[in-house]
Amino acid sequence: MTQSVALPGNLDLYLHVRVLIALILGLSVTRLVSGIAALVQHPGRYPIWPVHLGWVAWALLNVVTFWWWEFRLSHIQQWTYGLYFFVCVYASMYYFLSVLLFPQDLDEYNGYEDYFLSRRRWFFGFAALTESLDVVDTWIKGEAHLRSLGLEYLIATGAFVLLSAAAARTRNPKFHMLFALSAVVYEISFSIRHFGTLD
Predict the structure, then answer these.
(1) Which of 101, 106, 151, 158 is the most exposed place for a label (fewest CB within 10 A)?
(2) pTM, 2 dp
């Protein structure tokens, strides 16, 4: 699929919007990758927590998937300010999640486990909101596209929101480990099955 699929009158506007989306998502990727690089550069500075790394992987997978799949916005025939604003807010959620995962410093905390658990309500609240916005974003791309993802998509999103609500309430490390691992595995599986091409 090439950019010529977009309507000629809509193409310039879509490209204009895509630039801002790319900037926001680029900041998200930069934050996540630089955070990972800092862990490699200074492994002893703050204790690393596997659950935190799991959510870093989940966030990075989501940002890359979002960037790839937003090409379908080129099919939208009529752009409005409301739609533009929604897409910008949706993209910004990933940057906010990235900043939550890698704050500027951890001086007040005893490593990433202490930090993550103390900010879990913020993280899982925004993660649940982001997944909910994804349903709206999918619907914007057309009802046919939403139906193509099947009932599994809506069930998985609902389950993620419910599990996020539970994760926001508990500090149980086993629950957090299982949730993070399941989220990463499912994201990889879903991406392979649905995001292989843009056709």
Answers:
(1) 151
(2) 0.85
